[in-house]
Design a protein that fits this description.
single chain; alpha/beta; Enolase-like, domain 1; 8-stranded parallel β-sheet; 15 helices
Length: about 400
């Protein structure tokens, strides 16, 4: 079997708002086609126009080749060779960041092809299941432009998530900082009050994670507030400081009263090695598309196991990425939860319409996938409706 074409479609929801901190309003749909008629689907969570350019652009020399040209004619079942060829052949432009993100989308599609070819779910190709079910956490991002609206919206989402059977919830609590919700500028005390309200709504039995989206510049600033959050029994605190501030992450690990999580933006196992070994994070959060696909995510899993920490994959995207994340989780011993953007609890159109994920969600748990490949069903009408390129 040979790869015959790679198509990249930029999709943007008709209600997208660039002022929002939500990357699920757009996506890049990557489609890998073969001479045997088997098609694979992938996506990644970064600027879709950039990924399209990275995949479709012609090459200029041996260190900066065309991703599309590299792959055409290659065997899609030889995923390791495809990955290495893409990484080495585009290293001058790629190597990290968006270049690896683009490889991640292609890698996802290649695993989809291999699963369909062998008539197996991807988790079986990765080595088989190590969990009977996977526990997702409902990832909640509130609406509103004032403290009261923000708090009440988040509490409402949390109550709905509880009623839907979720056993864990992650709340975005970001009313100041570089990615402040709707440009809000509320003090840290009000962040504490929001978390208090959400914990009260959830009760003591549902795990609560908190994402503050790089809110503080230093660990010292963060610790002044988060030391008071011990009473809320927070499972982990996500990205309290900038990803590159590894020494600050190490201090957070030592002094914060909850686990510290990070890694959503990182690409390749090399960046995770630094985050884990120097930054001492308790929870590694590879995003399957961004890190370089399932192939690279498994390497991250190995580093996590060597350091006796846990994985909770990031995934704020459509059913394509969510399904890939679930397959990864079923084969990953250190995986405790996965991020899950509930279609019933979000306003992201593409999450709701682009695809149906390849698993069942029953009683708050993701059930073992049974369909081949990713197992997803693409809504071609949605592709046509939201395609902008």
């Amino acid at each position: 079997m040979k790869i015959t074409d790679i198509k990249t479609y930029v999709l943007v929801a008709d209600n997208a708002d660039v002022s929002l901190t939500s990357s699920a309003q757009d996506t890049v749909l990557v489609i890998v086609e073969t001479d045997e008629g088997i098609t694979g689907y992938g996506e990644t969570d970064t600027n879709p126009w950039v990924v399209k350019a990275l995949i479709q652009s012609p090459g200029t020399h041996t260190m900066d080749q065309s991703m599309k040209d590299i792959l055409i004619g290659m065997d899609p079942l030889d995923i390791d060779n495809c990955w290495k060829s893409l990484y080495v052949g585009t290293a001058m432009t790629g190597r990290r960041g968006a270049g690896v993100n683009a490889i991640g989308a292609i890698d996802m599609a290649l695993w989809d092809i291999k699963g369909k070819f062998e008539n197996k779910p991807i988790f079986e190709l990765l080595g088989g299941k190590v969990h009977e079910t996977i526990t997702p956490y409902a990832s909640l991002q509130p609406l509103g432009t004032s403290f009261e609206e923000y708090r009440d919206s988040l509490v409402e989402w949390a109550e709905k998530a509880k009623n839907l059977g979720f056993k864990a919830v992650k709340s975005e609590v970001t009313m100041n900082g570089p990615y402040s919700h709707n440009g809000m500028d509320e003090d840290d005390d009000k962040h504490t009050r929001v978390i208090e309200a959400v914990r009260k709504a959830l009760g003591p039995d549902i795990e609560l994670m908190v994402d503050v989206q790089y809110k503080w510049e230093t660990a010292e600033q963060a610790l002044r507030t988060v030391k008071d959050w011990k009473e809320f029994n927070i499972y982990f605190l996500e990205t309290p400081v900038w990803t590159d501030n590894l020494d600050d992450y190490a201090r957070m690990h030592e002094e914060a009263p909850m686990k510290i999580a990070a890694g959503e933006w990182l690409s390749t196992v090399h960046e995770f090695k630094d985050l884990i070994e120097r930054g001492k994070v308790d929870v590694a959060q590879p995003d399957i598309g961004r890190v370089g696909g399932l192939t690279e995510a498994k390497k991250v899993s190995n580093i996590v196991d060597e350091n006796n920490i846990i994985i909770v994959p990031h995934c704020w995207k459509t059913s394509i990425s969510i399904s890939a994340t679930a397959h990864f989780a079923f084969n990953t011993p250190s995986c405790r939860f996965i991020e899950y953007l509930p279609p019933q609890l979000c306003h992201e159109t593409l999450r709701r319409e682009l695809a149906i994920e390849g698993f069942d969600f029953i009683n708050g748990l993701i059930q073992l996938p049974t369909k081949s490949g990713l197992g997803i069903e693409i809504n071609e009408d949605a592709v046509k409706k939201y395609r902008v390129d």
